[in-house]
Amino acid sequence: MLRILNKIRKTGIITEDFPPVVRDDETEIIGKQVQAEIAHLFAGSLAIRQVDAGSCNGCELEIHALSNPYYSIERFGIHFVASPRHADALLVTGVVSRNMQAALLRTYEATPAPKLVIAVGACAVDGGEFGISYASCGAVNHVIPVDVMIAGCPPTPTALLTGILQAIRQKK
């Protein structure tokens, strides 16, 4: 143990410095607009329930990126919740598989009105590569009503933020 501590003392700190933080101006502008709309319509915060209806998880990675320190959407008043009963909006990804159809309907019904439904990604918008088959219901709007569709495979975090802004503005 003493030998290891001595080696640490002799070696010192050998980590790199943090790179300077550079914010994306477009994200910042859209975020401020979202924040203003949320303050007006939702009394300061928008609760989103994300539902994976059968995706490849590409869209989920971009959605998770919204919460990382670079985008940090919580500073704009957007947060993700675990229950649809606490949600103002549903963010649905993936083509709706037959196994998830009933779960998506129950989630939609459990979300209090007025609710926003946002379809994220090519699969959720039009069925993507899968379309309608024995295992797939196709796009999200074949199962529940959709307010806004965000295209892309996967859409960027900035496109997601723009889609959320568009959905909020539609509810005015």
UniProtKB/TrEMBL annotation:
InterPro entries registered for this protein in UniProt: Complex_I_20kDa-like, NADH_UbQ_OxRdtase-like_20kDa
Alphabetical keyword list: 4Fe-4S, Iron, Iron-sulfur, Metal-binding, Oxidoreductase
Record bears the keyword Magnesium: no
Domain (NADH:ubiquinone oxidoreductase-like 20kDa subunit): residue spans on this chain: 56-166
Ribonucleoprotein as UniProt keyword: no
Molecular-function GO terms, alphabetical: 4 iron, 4 sulfur cluster binding; metal ion binding; oxidoreductase activity
Gene3D superfamilies: 3.40.50.12280
Main EC class the enzyme belongs to: oxidoreductase
Cofactor needs: [4Fe-4S] cluster
Entry's EC annotation: 1.6.5.11
NCBIfam families named in the record: PRK06411.1
Family: Belongs to the complex I 20 kDa subunit family.
Record protein name field: NADH-quinone oxidoreductase subunit NuoB
Organism expressing this protein natively: Beggiatoa leptomitoformis
